[in-house]
TrEMBL record:
Keywords: Antioxidant, Oxidoreductase, Peroxidase, Redox-active center. It comes from Arabidopsis thaliana x Arabidopsis arenosa. It catalyses: [glutaredoxin]-dithiol + a hydroperoxide = [glutaredoxin]-disulfide + an alcohol + H2O. Coiled coil: none annotated. This is Glutaredoxin-dependent peroxiredoxin. Belongs to the peroxiredoxin family. Prx5 subfamily. Signal peptide: none annotated. GO terms for biological process: cell redox homeostasis; cellular response to oxidative stress; hydrogen peroxide catabolic process. One of its GO terms (molecular function) is thioredoxin peroxidase activity.
Amino acid sequence: MAPITVGDVVPDGTISFFDENDQLQTVSVHSIAAGKKVILFGVPGAFTPTCSMSHVPGFIGKAEELKSKGIDEIICFSVNDPFVMKAWGKTYTENKHVKFVADGSGEYTHLLGLELDLKDKGLGIRSRRFALLLDNLKVTVANVESGGEFTVSSAEDILKAL
């Protein structure tokens, strides 16, 4: 499957997360992104070094600025289970705006065409590192990394594109 790109409508599929009442929710991507400007940024794994020390903190630190530029939702996405994503999200006590969501079996990652094979590292099939800007489900920015790089998918990169 070809990777998602600018001009595409983001595919519908399900993701899971714990809501503000600590209830597990499984929802369609379209239901949370329709009619909104959404940043969906993907990471290869929760608690991994680049993801935990650079990628996620960048979006948390720039969340207010992103919101001031019209962003409705900032979603951190990974091929992990929702319990792991919940625990990882709780490590960022300063976070007020980034929602941590799970693609437990990698099915949505497959629909996006953004799988990353990390079997040689014992991690299985994961998500490539990316940042998508969606405007009413349409991809207006698609910053997708090669391999394990972190060069084009930061919060700063999205801010430049707004």
